[in-house]
User: Fold these one by one.
Assistant:
Number 1:
Amino acid sequence: MRMTQTFVPVLKESPADAEIISHKLALRAGLIRQTAAGIYAWLPLGFRVLKKIEAIVRREQDRAGGAELLMPTVQSADLWQRSGRYDAYGPEMLRFEDRHGRNMLYGPTNEEMLTELFMSAAASYRDLPKMFYHIQWKFRDERRPRFGVMRGREFLMKDAYSFDVDEEGLRRSYDSQFEAYLRTFAALGLKAVPVRAPTGPIGGDLSHEFHVLADTGESAIYYDAALEDISIDDPEAVAKLSATYAMEEEEHEKVADCPVPADRLLKRRGIEVGHIFAFGSKYTNGMGYSVQGRDGEQVHPLMGSYGIGVSRLFGAIIEACHDEAGIVWPRQVAPYQVGIINLRQGDEACDAACEQLYGQLTDAGVEALYDDRNDRGGAKFATMDLIGLPWQLIVGPKGVSAGTIEVKNRATGERADLSPEDALARVAA
Amino acid sequence: MRMTQTFVPVLKESPADAEIISHKLALRAGLIRQTAAGIYAWLPLGFRVLKKIEAIVRREQDRAGGAELLMPTVQSADLWQRSGRYDAYGPEMLRFEDRHGRNMLYGPTNEEMLTELFMSAAASYRDLPKMFYHIQWKFRDERRPRFGVMRGREFLMKDAYSFDVDEEGLRRSYDSQFEAYLRTFAALGLKAVPVRAPTGPIGGDLSHEFHVLADTGESAIYYDAALEDISIDDPEAVAKLSATYAMEEEEHEKVADCPVPADRLLKRRGIEVGHIFAFGSKYTNGMGYSVQGRDGEQVHPLMGSYGIGVSRLFGAIIEACHDEAGIVWPRQVAPYQVGIINLRQGDEACDAACEQLYGQLTDAGVEALYDDRNDRGGAKFATMDLIGLPWQLIVGPKGVSAGTIEVKNRATGERADLSPEDALARVAA
């Protein structure tokens, strides 16, 4: 993509209301813009990152056996009255009437709706187990939205729901999502810690939160250093991680006798990006749904729900991956892999060299962003560092006459003057 | 995908409130479910079709030079007060207050928001031309939603917006979208007719609607038969089509002297699936935005907007592509390319033959849906015809012992008994 064809409105200054680094950088790099309190538009570069995060989440949900569907954003209040949550849910729920005066709401989550969709068609234990997920915009009318897309009001979430006939099945579903979460965060280039969580208003007795480690994280977590040695490729990873100590500060402080020796107890800051629950028959029972069990009796299927904050991950990744100069995107979610900087736009030789590089990268299937604006070199360097693509190809008159291009690795800062062929090989590797 | 792993709740009877064939078939085939009046959940098979339509729309928007972004569903009323449309828009606009009493709305379209997003960052004619698009859920609170997803309240739409400094540029942008629309509908396997349209409340003086031809279409259109001979691969296609007579009935009847000879004037039924407008400076001027022009003067950029009803297309395709037995999906948007019918689930040889076929198709990258349920052959035939995948592979005890598989083409009804190798080659072609 050529910079002149897309829209990257970088800002020199951070807007005053941006409190945390991910919010500042996302605004400065022209990735998002606020359109109302806690509500954001995803500009072209930010949108590409969001789609890449979404694609990785989807891939791991598919691998876990989830069937993807899509539920609408607007829900009927009736549904929530039947589960008893309509009155229980606080002012975070955005409620309104439609033109006929019917009570509606913008869904903050979908337990009720999916229970109704699936259970109204399920008759027998043979229709189970089943795992569904969708990736959809949701709304929570936060009293004080802040931290950019990390705590926005309109946010993108992956929520999955499992239905099983017995506890053993529920545990299998829960563990398959647990593993999917480990794979998802690893594929995003993040370090995530599963923390045993209190179950709260969703109910049930088994729950984990997943925290991405970042020095600027909102919460403190305590965990056994042994946790860092467990690989997701270990077939026992879920069992080992579930058994390894990890708690949020507030919960940790309630533990009278921490089983982890002091020299192995780590304290790190984290950002919650996922939360999974096994809550059993709360909704199937509450909403009056059952299936015929194996012995002919009626049973209320046992459910779990499994959320990942997709738009929140966007912020969490920036919190975990940035430096003084700007964002340092992990390769997996970078909006483009390579940025081409033309130091003398309008110079025939520089333009030709850039066009050739851009064409070759495009032909090779390497996503490239070509800064073809009429701007000073210094401004282009700063913009490209801010945007944070993994590689930069810097084309100037000196290099062009010497037959070289400067290749810069954004993460390490390493630079090398290479022939165009070697430069292409380096960034495409 | 195995039928037992996904969720395809087919219905024997059409729900009484489904008036048109696409609505009946989409419900019966388990593609969608209504969750509130005019609001639908997209079940796994329907969701796959929707995503494929979306992907084709996206590809052609990218080709037309559009930069994709994503604007939120919830908008501030302020924005619409500034353009003057807040009061003008009728009860179709879903309005509500947030917890702080601020007036908000669920966006029915995005002219105001994108004008603000882009124009607040554009300073000069050098920042133009620019074309943006997004594919996002929108809401129109129809008084009487009906026809399933063809006229739902929450619907998925692609809307694009162009900004140019002069009329010539606007016309170029308009024509590039016109061409993108022709390519989009052709790629979807549809016959679409561009009809000159009155501009209505969006204003401006150039507008076309695109109607998909279907015998069950909601509107009658009159057009010159010559239109059917114009290929989109003709570089002059846009100019020729714009100059060829095509009108909706209501407009046609106002034409005193139709220029098309009676023997060339066709009357067909159509479904409106796209609408493009060149409306000039209505919003930039109305909202007080300008850029510096080529000669230093301030100019209000000229805009166009370009909509495609993505979820509406889902219904329109079914209207155009069905028969007595069910849906006949065009290959390009079919949820899967091949359905495998196991006539004797539990029979060792049949199960093994089906598993092998399923594995081979999956390995070859051919999307297959394997009906592995315990059900009678007759029910499986009816379900597969209803769902409408392009090919069926029918595996029964007789064929398996003879070393053959029955291959059925859903559209033509042609059947052949082939060796497994030939069957795979046939459906993968």
Number 2:
Amino acid sequence: MRSRRRVTLESVAAHAKVSRQTVSNAINAPDVVKPETLTRVLESIAELGYQPSRAARQLRTRRSQILGYALGPGTYSVYGTIGDRFVHALAQAAQERGYRIMLFAASSDDEEIVQFDELLSGADLDGFVLTNTHQADPRTTWLTERDVPFVTFGRPWDADHGTHPWVDVDGAAGTAAATRHLHGLGHTRIAYLGWPHGSGVGDDRRTGWSSTMTELGLSADERWQETTDNATEHAEVAAARLLRRVAPSAVVCVSDTVGLGVVQAAESQGRRVAVTGFDDSAVSYVAGMTTIAQPIAESARRALALVLRQIGVESGGSAARHELLPPTLVVRGTSIRPDPLSGTVGS
Amino acid sequence: MRSRRRVTLESVAAHAKVSRQTVSNAINAPDVVKPETLTRVLESIAELGYQPSRAARQLRTRRSQILGYALGPGTYSVYGTIGDRFVHALAQAAQERGYRIMLFAASSDDEEIVQFDELLSGADLDGFVLTNTHQADPRTTWLTERDVPFVTFGRPWDADHGTHPWVDVDGAAGTAAATRHLHGLGHTRIAYLGWPHGSGVGDDRRTGWSSTMTELGLSADERWQETTDNATEHAEVAAARLLRRVAPSAVVCVSDTVGLGVVQAAESQGRRVAVTGFDDSAVSYVAGMTTIAQPIAESARRALALVLRQIGVESGGSAARHELLPPTLVVRGTSIRPDPLSGTVGS
């Protein structure tokens, strides 16, 4: 039943004919071991190729090969979030480089900073991977001031915090692709349902729609926009207003859950409306909704490379400190052509 | 900007008027520090209440306060899985007890065992939390033989592996509750769509339906059952067969994605069929499907308590080594009453 291929403390002890504790002392407190015993243990360690424990190694190298990652409360939702998918990909990518991910829980920036502090003074992490970046993010300021290696999955979103390494997905390119896709199906009355102004991610996605509409010579003025938080029931109310006001034949949405609100509002009003969401979540899959997929595995690999370069473990690869990756359009059943009657109903 | 409340190596160094390296030596290699300097540093450490690093502490206590948790490839799906929700709850519960969760990736039992071995010889974990248990699970045998503390979220499912600590959710109680709920709505033609025989979780959920049907004096013979894997498109094909064969007015399903297949098959055949799923996932939420919710946060708390008791950190609480928690019925739109015409169509 012994499938261990690694040499253990026990096998070194057996080889050197000493106790397990003596091997441990030879590694961690050599001064308490008799010189001749120490020599024998060190020879056994060399001969068997024993790797001392992470703790002992880390005191020597000052590297723990552990990165910290915060799980926020937002991810407790019944939906599989982008964050969940990211941490899977990150754990896989890290393991391939001999690194591990240590999870911690934080429900606010301040809590996360308290945890940074605790982890740095107690757990000897090599660095952090952050998500959910936003304007004036105190977390990145805190880490930068203390010269702690980190990378964010998400842009800083404000000019004066833009110097740390980050990886992000180009949200504006996603909503631009959705808008062009709908226009290609024949739509010209394309509205936008997004999050309230002021969130980096939300404003970026809105820009992809509005700039593409302008390029196409179509209206992107305020009448064609509504805002809502991410709850489907609130999105449905906002969508109902938008559908009545401008009778769009298509709505580009900031997320899949918001998109579901548009699908439901259109159904209630007996309208045929094309809808695109964002995230390629279970919601879009079940609702048969066209959406934008983020390259999560690639984002995790690039984020890992950036933080390892900061730590000093990696030197190769691109010299870029910021990487903006393109998302992909996923076409499903809500990519319908415009109804010839649309634009006449309710306006 | 200094929001640190913890004492650092630097502040000890400043207080004792020595270098950072000297403080580090005083903790990790006291024999290389001059006795009078060592005394001064140790006094500063005591006066300031400095906590030496986790690595140094762990060499002293032989405890890392870290638990390992494998992320499997199954969780890469677009759905938020039970595993994702469990690890969030586990990280939160662990943190409240001063423990952290270290993630590793494994796509098979053998890979997971290789990682156990590597983590135990390299990273000084205190124990593991395992998911996705199954019959003849080589992982629990491996850990048990090596006396490594661990707990599983999921039963062993075979008699001779049943001695290690585990927490699980009573799946049979869930499908029994779903069956009684449908019967209470007036259904008597209640079929079951499950996974192929031989999976512990799947067989357990089937039993809840079949034993309840028998109690109610209703047929649970093979004509009333079909099996499918968890893919909605395969479930739809199996459901179509089941609907044609016995024209059930309701179908109890082993999972939400399987339940969605029944919803789609019923729609294709123009039938009104009540459906219950299992897991309270995004799929059931979006599809408006009645389902069974697992007590994930409570499961994580109990699993943590069991593994901490094994490690020797906790002694209080229940003495039980095995905890089977009841799930909850979540009633949604697919809880429809039987159509008076059902049972006559297609039979």
